[in-house]
Amino acid sequence: PPETRAAAWARPRSGPAPVTDVAKLCVCDLLVAQCDVNCCCDPDCSAADFSLFTTCSVPIVTGDSRLCSQKAATYSLDVEANPPERIFKLTDQVNPSVFCIHATNYKQALSFRPPEMPTSENFDLFLKRFGSAAFSAKPDSWNMNTDAQNPSDANETYRYEYGVPIQTADAFLRLPSPVVSSWCSDANPAGFLVNQATKCTRSVSVEKCSNIQAVSMLFYINSSILAVPKSSQMVNITVQSIVVQSLNGMRTLLNGSDVLRPPVTLDELCINIVLGVSYHITYTDAGEIIEAAASFVLGAITKEALSIQQSFDISFTQVNTTPVPLSGNPGYVVGLPLRAGFQPQGYPFPTEILFAALNTNKYSQLTILQSTSNQDCLAAQGARTPILFGYNMISGCQLRITAAMKCQPLTQTLLDLLKGQSFPEYVASFGNSQAQNVLDWVPIIHLRTSEQSDNERMYNPFQSACQIPISLEIEVKWTKYGSLVNPQARIVNVTATITTTTLKQLPPGRERTIPVTSSVVFTDISSPAEPGYKAWPTINIKLPFDFFFPFV
User: Fold this and answer.
1) 149-178: pLDDT as tens digits
2) 108 close to 151: Cβ distance less than 8 angstroms
3) Where do the structural domains in the chain lie, given as residue ranges?
4) H or E stretch covering 407
5) Is the pTM here over 0.90, yes or no?
6) Phi and psi for 202 in degrees, rounded to 5?
């Protein structure tokens, strides 16, 4: 009836609650636990970071553009403030289109249903349903109960991700650290894949040392670790080693580490006090913890001691992999070696980088020739030294050439001397680049030049004379990456240049000595422009005489 229809239109029509919280969306947040430059919606950025931004790379964040009405998060910078501040506003945005979605009330369409995997129990059911020549993809019945549990939640697989606190049976894995002062706080959780090392001070007394939980071994291993979050599978923390430290600082490794040693008071001493704990976690590529071990340093205190200093650290190793020392986290640290590796053979597409495993380069480092005291190149074969980030280096030796030496074996010997037995193909762009992240590795560009003069090229145009390598020059270009407050060193280009020279045939019985050199140069390509100077593009060409005709 008309009156019923009019009454229905007279009632206020309000939109449903939004499904997506646009205030928590940030498409420019690319770095984990770091502030992205000019990303105004990055929750990792502080007020000091916002004061250094020049613009907001993403000024507005919205959900589905097909909705009739939705929230919009707008970001801007107040450059007139001192210092500049970020401005955040949450406004209502109305879609002017007539064809828009008023309510997303079909909850099953908001998530992908995980496919059912055939097993020995349901194989006959799958065969009956899909074994015929034709079948329907529509289920037997649609579940229209919107209050039922979301199918994605029922089959959700939990896993540890970077920075997530490691859960235990009672709470989380503790890694004591100083908070406001130097005193230890046991409320610091250990984050997954976050290598940490802390030192703090603990108040103790000989009379009460056996009653202080934080100085007992049991306090750090009594709770089992959850293999994955919200699971019932537990991983016990085993004792890997126990080192006993005497009052004068001498340390002794105990043979048996399977026996707990509680604090005990002997006369005026308290022994078996925990001075340090080192956790080592082994995990899989699926984010599951499979092993946990702890190494302890135990000591003793006298009745004069009122406090002790404890040290704690935690490290992570992926199963079936060899741990490789990092050279920074994430950017390179000056003085630490460059990490290098190879691309595995047989892959049509780059999937991961394999680390070098040579005896002279067991830590996957880029190396150069190491100078020796006698300066003999043949005696220096195999002697390598790692290239340290930020250090320009040069080394060399003297090669004595006789008339009996052949060109091809001599050339190969010099190449092995300059580049090593197996020269890497890639260099890590960051100090903590993982082998699985192929885009974090920079390929080494190989160049070759010759010291041959123009006269030699004129009389020997086909390069028939023997060309031997005499020098290797490595140039590493790096830039400052990330926040302006805490820039990180990132390698963007590595070039290896081999210089050759012409070796003329020597008369019988004659000898010749040539120098062989290796050098490394680091170039910073992130130098900022001078303040107040704006570089305008210039064109270095000559205009024709009638370019402005008929004007003067």
Assistant:
1) 444 444 445 789 888 899 998 888 989 988
2) yes
3) 31-108, 165-324, 336-453+463-524
4) helix 407-419
5) no
6) -125, 135
